[in-house]
Amino acid sequence: LAPEPGAAPFVTLGSRVAQGQTLLLIEAMKTYNQIKAPRAGTVPRILVESGMPVEYGEPLLIIE
Q1: pLDDT digits (tens, 9 = 90+) for 19-40
Q2: What is the DSSP string of 4-58?
Q3: Element at 61 (helix H, strand E)
Q4: Hey, which of 7, 11, 57, 59 would disulfide with 2, CB 3.0 to 4.6 Å?
């Protein structure tokens, strides 16, 4: 959820995001991949926590 441990998260509940804005980083095979907003909106729910393993296709947060 943040660019590095101890840093402020990219987004928080209620954040307004722009299309293409970085929302999260996913680490896969020692490579960090940016997850960008597919559209503009507000983040009412974040469905994951930092360090939590995720699966391909799993919803990570909601943008309304």
Answers
A1: 999 999 999 988 999 999 999 9
A2: STTSPPS--TT-EE-TT-EEEEEEETTEEEEEE-SS-EE--EE---TT----TT-
A3: strand 61-62
A4: 7
